[in-house]
Design a protein that fits this description.
The complex is a heterodimer. Chain A is mostly beta strands. Chain A is about 0% helix and about 55% strand. Chain A contains no helices and eleven strands. Chain A has strands spanning about 5, 10-15, 20-25, 30-40, 40-50, 55, 65-70, 75-80, 85-95, 105, 110-114. In chain A, strands 2, 4, 5, 6, 9, 10 and 11 form a seven-stranded mixed β-sheet that branches. A four-stranded antiparallel β-sheet of chain A has the order 1-3-8-7, with no helix packed on it. By secondary structure, chain B is an all-beta fold. Chain B is about 0% helix and about 55% strand. In chain B, β6 (about 55) and β7 form a beta hairpin. The chains are: A mainly beta, B mainly beta. The interface of A and B includes residues 43, 45, 55 and 92 of A.
Chain lengths: ~110, ~110
């Protein structure tokens, strides 16, 4: 069974630009969560989608948004990029709710903002 | 926010046993998970505890005490490949069920 895939794997942007990251969950998984990982802040929760509905949102500004499609694929968007948005963005999928089921993580998208 | 505490670093030698502790905020606690992440890799699931007691999976075991708001990950017969970061993660009941709160991670270094 194919794992979680994320595209692109690496991205370099400049301040003020916007970016869209994509995540394809494991087939059959309905929950997709997004995390930001940085050396200083660790793994921080961005949002969770379940059957196309955003169930939970972390403490990030409105510049961070996401959505989930009917095939469970998900995208996250960051607008008006700031230097501090440089991070590894991880997507994870699970069959049921994220917090009580095993989450399978993708390899991440490494975003660098210059 | 929700607070989790775990040691930042632990070192041990091959063949030894190491315990990584995690304490968490009690209010609304639902379950405790553990994830492993190697440098440059993605986190991988190790275990989930919702009830008190010990869960064993091969060389790894995870323990939970809800009354003490405390859990630990026990790694036995350490191998070099166990060198990685280990994260505890908590989920709380209510509207945020489904959201994982991660600790800052414990960097485990296994020496030969």
């Amino acid at each position: 069974k194919a794992g979680v895939t994320q595209t692109p794997r690496y991205l370099i942007k400049t301040r003020g630009q916007q970016v869209t990251l994509s995540c394809s969950p494991i087939s059959g998984h309905r929950s997709v969560s997004w995390y930001q990982q940085t050396p200083g802040q660790g793994l921080q929760f961005l949002f969770e989608y379940f059957s196309e509905t955003q169930r939970n949102k972390g403490n990030f500004p409105g510049r961070f948004s996401g959505r989930q499609f009917s095939n469970s694929r998900s995208e996250m968007n960051v607008s008006t990029l700031e230097l501090g948005d440089s991070a590894l963005y991880l997507c994870a999928s699970s069959f049921g709710l994220a917090g009580v089921n095993e989450q399978f993580f993708g390899p991440g998208t490494r975003l660098t903002v210059l | 926010g929700q607070s989790l505490e775990q040691p930042s670093e632990v070192t041990a030698v091959e063949g030894a046993i190491v315990q990584i502790n995690c304490t968490y905020q009690t209010s609304g606690f639902y379950g405790l998970s553990w994830y492993q992440q190697h440098d440059g890799g993605a986190p991988t699931f190790l275990s989930y505890n919702a009830l008190d007691g010990l869960e064993e999976t091969g060389r790894f075991s995870s323990f939970l005490s809800r009354s003490d708001s405390y859990g630990y990950l026990l790694l036995q017969e350490l191998q070099m490949k166990d060198s990685a970061s280990y994260f505890c993660a908590v989920t709380f009941r209510g509207s945020t069920l489904g959201r994982l709160y991660f600790g800052r991670g414990t960097q485990l270094t296994v020496w030969p």
